[in-house]
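Entry 14. Structure prediction run on the chain below.
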Amino acid sequence: MEFPGPLRADARQNRQRVLDAARELFADRGLDVPIAAVARRAGVGVATLYRRFPTRDSLVTAVFSDQLEACSAVIDTALAAPDPWRGFCSVVEKVGTMQATDRGFTAAFLTAFPDAVDFERTRVRAERGFVEVVRRAKESGSLRPDFALTDLPLLLMANNGITAGSPEVARAASRRLVALLLDAFRADRAAPPVPLPPPAPLDLMDVHRPQRPYGTSARAGA
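Output returned:
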C-alpha cells in the first residue's frame, strides 16, 4: 500500500517515473527485477522509490492495476457474448496476447496480494468470471467436456515458453500457438476447422534462443 496524502508536483513526477520504469522492466523481464534496477531506470534513489512504494507488492499492484481491470473487462465482455464459444476464445486469445506482450502481467495476475484489497478483489472477480465463461461454453456443447480449469495455466506455461528475436515474432508465435490449442479444445471435431493465423518466422535454432528483454529494457544499465 502506498503512503497516503497529496503529493507535490516533483513527488508526482518521481512516482510516475518509477511506475513507467517498473512497467518496462516487469514487462520484459518479469517480476524478479531488482528494485535498484527500477530506481536506476527511473532516475531516482532507492530511498525515494521506497517512500512511495514501501514493498515490492505495492509497486507490482500499482503497475498492473490498469491491465488487471482490462483483463477483467475482457471476461465481462465474454460473459455478455451471445456465442459462448466465441466468448471463451476471445478470453484465451486476449490473455495470450497480453502475456506475449508483457511477461510480468501473467505472473501478477496469478499471484495473490492480500494487502492490496482492490487489486485482489478484481483478480478474484476475473477468476470467477472465467469459471463462468468455461461453464457456458461447455453447456453450449462447443467446449470439450473434459476441459479443466487447470488447462488455462497449462496453456499459459506453454505460451510463456515462446522465445523469439523480437516482440513482433513473439506475438505472431503466440497467436499461432493459441489458435492450435483452441482447435484442440473444440468439442465439435466435425465442424470445419478455423483457419490458423500465419506461421511465425521461427526455425529450430529459436528453440535454444534464451529469453531476453525486448526493446528499451535491453539498454545498458537497466
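The chain has nine helices and no strands.
Filed with the rest of this week's runs.
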